[in-house]
Every structure is written in C-alpha cells, then in structure tokens.
Design brief:
Blueprint lengths: L4 E6 L2 E6 L5 E5 L5 H8 L3 E6 L9 E4 L5 H15 L1
Parallel strand pairs: 3-4, 4-5
Antiparallel strand pairs: 1-2
Length: about 80
C-alpha cells in the first residue's frame, strides 16, 4: 500500500512528504481515562486534555482548558445555553 503524499509548494520548488495516517484522538475533558482506554484498544493514539491534573490518566496528557475562557466570554450566555 502506498503512503499518501503531501505536496508542498515553496516558491519555485515542489516538495513531497509522506503523511502519517495513524489514527489520532484528542480526548477533551478526559478525567481518569475510561473512554481513552477503549479508543486506545481500538488502535488510536490518544492525548488527553483536562483542566486539572489527572495522576492516573494512562496516556499522554495536557493540563489546560478545553474551552478557553475568551471563547466563553465572547459568546456569553448564548454559549452557556448551548452547552447546558
């Protein structure tokens, strides 16, 4: 099976680069990693994101807000109504 190629045009040169087609998943609001375990078992490379450290999360993890405060402030009550 051929690897998919990305063609990059930079000025006068054309570069070809192989694309890694591995399944990747960003697990927002990851908590302890229950859902991530299922995704990992299904073949995904999982990275968790939560706003609090999760010491027992079994995969790579980023401690950050999944929805930045600036976004919620920009849309205000409309955004909060949408997610509640």
């Amino acid at each position: 099976m051929k690897m998919p190629m990305l063609i990059i045009w930079s000025g006068t040169k054309v570069k070809r680069k192989a694309i890694d087609m591995a399944k990747k998943l960003l697990d927002l609001f990851c908590g302890g990693g229950g859902a991530a375990k299922g995704y990992h078992d299904a073949g995904f490379e999982v990275v968790g994101v939560d706003n609090k450290p999760q010491p027992h999360y079994p995969y790579k993890m980023i401690v950050a807000d999944a929805i930045p405060p600036a976004y919620t402030n920009w849309y205000g009550t409309q955004f909060m109504e949408l997610i509640s």
